[in-house]
Write a structure and sequence with these properties.
Structural class: alpha+beta
Largest sheet: 5 strands, mixed
Strand content: 5-15%
Radius of gyration: 31 Å
Length: 816
């Protein structure tokens, strides 16, 4: 080692970081050691300075000994005096309660949530997207009980069915289904919703600590984390997840991991403290597995950690690549099936040009930001927004000397750019992989996450200022008492936000949940009794109005709309549209309830409408009870035998509705003639009827039908009067297998997006069977091996460098 190794050092937390590429000067103004330092110590970005001896020490040795790097300075300062821009956010005195008090604040925030949200633990029907998520948990539970992996299968209940579990973030549903084995799906779902939302401040505190912030700043961030409200919605706020909100349940799981993903990935990339790449990669990967859009942000933030320290760009880039690739390998069982089958998912044209897809643009977002509507919604006093602003000012003042400040400002700026969306970024978005599938309005999540951390920094700084003022004005008061007074004052400032949470989610939201609970427990629940009556009459899809229209938004089952109640009862239905990436999603969203042919196309046999209304097509009234009526419409069932006609439709995932949509209003549909589809470059099936004289008899008939769509299987016996197409009225997926008279055949796509197979004349037994993705065991093994390799690989590399440290150059050109 060099000659400075034997110099005695003091461990002092007030050391500062030198500017990149410069020398760390002695603490005194003397320069007698300058020549010695230049010869003995090699240049490095950060070197701690020993105030007592005046010598600089190599960073590598200082980090091993627990020292903190400090900035260059030319004159000694009195002990305890720090530059204004470098004030720590800790209470200055060393007291036993210093570590306990911040944790008490976190516990208080969690306790408040547990009380205010206590009604959320009750299992009820949901009036939002939670109805879809609960249905998915039930489906996964059934798969597990039947002895199957729940990672893939045919989920039939919305969008004419889809292989939803390998095209969507289904890990939360699978984990909850495991819990449901013991307590049931409904209780497992509501308990996870309640626990994750109530304990959210814990994750914020841990994430802030991992990012290097002191206990009080982290505790302040945790305290405000549950108080956010916004005008656009969909962010890290109660309204995104609660019963009276949007029901974005899978995002809730990723929200809980996001602070940990940011903190661990920052540590891994910056190596501010030794951090396992494997742990960082695991948490980043799980964030993506829980919610794709959240995971996408977690991956992109790795780039922010690289850019905030240009002097270490290459080293940080390498670390970020290790974490990112490691995360992808760990969740390869999610990524590989998703990418391989991505062309068979819909890029909905229904959302194009709307804020759901494009977001709101910079002007509107900035107006919301500076008027307090991004963090406080419609509150009269935007207290959270003020704290975010103070935190931003503090971080700007510390920008040059504090990487943590640059990190928060960097992720806030990057998240704002994403949230601005396509109206602002335009073609620049194409630089991001997969940007054509991003719902950019959701990236308010990054703005909220960064804002929460900035608010914690701002609150800690304000508290420190107030504490100093109180001690100057009241020196006779004990220091713990003044600190407690500052904490109580801060809570008082947040009282209006707490009161709003209490009124919105306890008094009003809780009362609505209890009302719905009463309706659900009644044996005479209207929709439920009508569904049971219809199911006794035979299989068929249900329709209770289209989402967004009065017939669906009107409360029919307590406070829940009909189309959502149907999903809550786990029945195959149409109406709660655009909830999956099924190829039939846009066709469902544009269903014309005045066209009789479309009822048959989608096998909408049962219609439930409010009393006093009746279908716009011929229908028979079956029953009427408690404000709702059940109607039956004649259809041909889930399977039909039809003619296919030229010309075929050529389409892909981005223009399928544009190309095939006109068929729904054409005479071809009314006469039972279907074009085939050449999808994504695949050849179309040849037509079974080329035109000419109109056939006098139908293409064929279905003699027997056995439907088990929840298991991905439908078996029929048909008679074809001529070459014909047997169609299953479910959304097309290439993993459908059609077995005709015992011979497995590939499926053929029929307009608008149905699965079918051509058969010759005569009787046939046809089975439609969905075959799940086959290699999950291999992919799960790859994920496990990737984690193990990252863990032990880092250990081995560290040991090698310790045993064989790199040789250091000396001024004469030699090395040692």
């Amino acid at each position: 080692m060099g000659p400075v190794a034997s110099i005695p050092l003091l461990r002092d937390s007030s050391w500062r970081t030198a500017s990149p590429g410069r020398w760390a000067r002695p603490a005194s103004s003397a320069t007698k050691h300058r020549v010695f330092l230049k010869q003995a110590v090699r240049r490095c970005d950060d070197q701690p300075v020993d105030k007592t001896s005046g010598f600089a020490v190599p960073v590598q040795g200082a980090e091993r000994e627990g020292f903190v790097a400090g900035p260059r300075r030319s004159k000694a300062r009195p002990a305890g005096v720090r530059r204004r821009g470098n004030i720590r956010f800790e209470l200055p005195e060393e007291t036993p309660g210093r570590a306990v008090a911040p944790l008490a604040i976190v516990a208080m925030a969690v306790g408040f949530n547990l009380w205010v949200l206590r009604a959320e633990i009750l299992p009820v029907l949901y009036p939002n997207d939670s109805s879809v998520h609960l249905s998915m948990v039930r489906w996964a539970l059934d798969r597990i009980r039947d002895g199957h992996l729940p990672f893939d299968g045919w989920y039939p209940y919305v969008g004419l069915g889809s292989s939803l579990f390998h095209h969507y973030q289904s890990l939360p549903h699978n984990l909850t289904a495991v819990l449901a084995l013991g307590i049931g799906a409904d209780w497992a779902f509501s308990i996870m919703l309640y626990v994750l939302l109530a304990t959210w401040p814990i994750s914020v505190y841990l994430g802030a600590r991992l990012l290097g912030w002191e206990r009080w700043a982290a505790a302040a961030a945790a305290l405000v984390s549950s108080l956010l409200a916004s005008t656009p919605g969909y962010g890290y706020e109660f309204g995104s997840y609660a019963w009276r909100g949007y029901g974005m349940w899978s995002q809730l799981w990723a929200m809980w991991l996001m602070p940990l993903a940011w903190g661990l990935s920052w540590r891994a990339v910056s190596q501010s403290k030794p951090t396992r790449y494997a742990v960082a990669a695991l948490v980043v990967g799980l964030t993506a597995a829980f919610h794709f859009l959240s995971g996408y942000l977690a991956f992109l933030v790795l780039g922010v950690w690289v850019l905030i320290r240009p002097a270490e760009f290459l080293r940080r880039l390498g670390r970020a690549v290790v974490v990112g690739l490691g995360a992808l390998l760990i969740i390869s069982w999610v990524v590989v099936p998703l990418l391989l089958d991505s062309r068979w998912t819909s890029q909905s044209q229904y959302l194009r040009g709307t804020f759901w897809f494009d977001s709101f643009g910079a002007r509107k977002v900035l107006v919301w930001l500076f008027t307090g509507q991004l963090f406080d919604g419609t509150r009269t006093i935007p207290v959270i927004s003020v704290l975010v602003g103070v935190g931003a000012v503090v971080c700007i003042s510390r920008f040059r000397h504090d990487e943590r400040a640059r990190a928060l400002l960097g992720v806030m700026l990057f998240s704002l750019l994403l949230f601005f969306g396509r109206p602002t970024l335009g073609p620049a978005l194409k630089l991001l992989p997969g940007s054509s599938d991003l719902l950019l309005h959701r990236y308010i999540m990054g703005v909220h996450m960064a804002g929460i951390l900035l608010a914690g920094v701002g609150a800690a700084r304000l508290s420190l200022i107030v504490l100093g003022a109180m001690r100057r004005l009241m020196p006779q008061v004990a220091r713990p008492a003044t600190a407690a007074a500052v904490v109580l004052l801060g809570m008082g400032v947040l009282a209006p936000a707490w009161a709003e949470r209490w009124g919105t989610f306890d008094r009003q939201g809780g009362e609505w949940i209890r009302q719905q609970r009463t309706v659900d427990a009644s044996p005479d629940a209207v929709i439920r009794s009508l569904v049971r009556e219809a199911q006794a009459r035979g299989p068929g899809r249900f329709y209770a109005g289209m989402w967004g229209e009065y017939s669906c938004t009107a409360s029919m089952e307590g406070l829940v709309a009909g189309c959502q109640a149907l999903l809550g009862y786990q029945v195959d239905s149409l109406g709660f549209s655009l909830r999956t990436t099924s190829l039939a999603s846009d066709f469902e969203a544009n269903f014309d309830d005045t066209n009789p042919a479309q009822y048959d196309l989608f096998n909408l046999r049962y219609v439930i409408l409010p009393s006093g209304r009746q279908p716009s097509v011929p229908a028979s009234l079956i029953d009427q009870d408690g404000g709702a009526a059940l109607w039956e419409i004649e259809t041909s069932g889930y399977v039909d035998v039809v003619d296919t006609v030229p010309p075929p439709i050529a389409a892909n995932r981005s223009d399928l509705y544009q190309q095939a949509g006109p068929f729904l209003q054409s005479d071809l549909l009314a006469h039972g003639r279907y074009p085939t589809v050449a999808f994504a470059g695949q050849p179309a099936a040849p037509p079974t009827w080329s035109g000419g004289e109109q056939p006098q008899v139908p293409a064929g008939s279905v003699e027997f039908e056995d439907d088990a769509l929840a298991d991905g299987a439908v078996t029929v016996q048909v008679v074809a009067n001529r070459p014909a197409m047997v169609i299953l009225k479910s959304s097309f997926d290439p993993r459908w297998q059609v077995i005709v008279d015992g011979v497995p055949l590939t499926p053929e796509m029929v307009a608008p997006s149905l699965v079918g197979r051509t058969v010759p004349p005569g009787p046939h037994t046809v089975q439609f069977r969905y075959e799940p993705f086959p290699s999950y065991d291999v992919l799960l093994s790859i994920g496990g091996l990737a984690f193990v390799a990252l863990w032990f690989g880092q250990v081995l590399v560290t040991r090698v460098f310790r045993r064989h440290p790199p040789r250091e150059a000396v001024p004469d050109g030699s090395s040692r």
